[in-house]
Amino acid sequence: MTHYETNPVAIVTGVSRGFGRAFTSALLDRGWTVVGDARRAVELETTARELNSARLITLPGDVTDAAHRAALLDAATHAGRLGLLVNNASRLGPSPQPVLPDYPADQLRAVYEANVFAPLALIQAALPLLAGGVVVNVSSDAAVEPYAGWGGYGSSKAALDQLSAVLATEASTVAVYAFDPGDMRTEMHQAAFPGEDISDRHEPESVVPVLLRLLDDRPVSGRYRAAELLASGVRA
Hints:
Elements: E1 9-12, H1 18-29, E2 33-38, H2 41-51, E3 56-60, H3 66-79, E4 82-87, H4 105-126, E5 134-138, H5 151-170, E6 175-180, H6 187-192, H7 204-217, E7 222-225, H8 226-231
Parallel strand pairs: 1-2, 1-4, 2-3, 4-5, 5-6, 6-7
């Protein structure tokens, strides 16, 4: 059962490639209007042309920029009623990823700005418009597993998980999900494993139905892993 009204509006960050693009395509197929962004303007323009939908509103820019976040909210407000915010855009950090004893402080700050502070700022701005809607913060298994070399990215996603959990107790008018899609065959994942073959990872499109089912079923707020939802019966 769906909980959304006719012609709902979503903000999805990082839509030019990978999971953000795949999920945006699925939302458009379901009749959503999507306000999407990406740092790479040329890639975003290509994505918009290939998805070819009048209901896709693209704004190039960086979510760490307050003016850009305001533009996303303004576009969503003019498009209709906001029902969904997906904080998908993330920064991996240097590639190859440095171990924590050698992690440059300026690079770590940039990771946290993109993966923690920007999502929170966008949530804060969107909450007045999201009553009855959903916030999805895209997480990672690196948030809960101590992988060597993943201290920067993983700790930022752990902070995002905790932010999601606390927000769920404080903002009763929205559902809040930290969603761990698992390893996917994306440019970011390739950057995390430079020179390695990642062809055994899932295509982003194979994970999209899992998040769609989560949004349709609307369970209690919390952290959800795609692998566990698949095991419980969700089919791609």
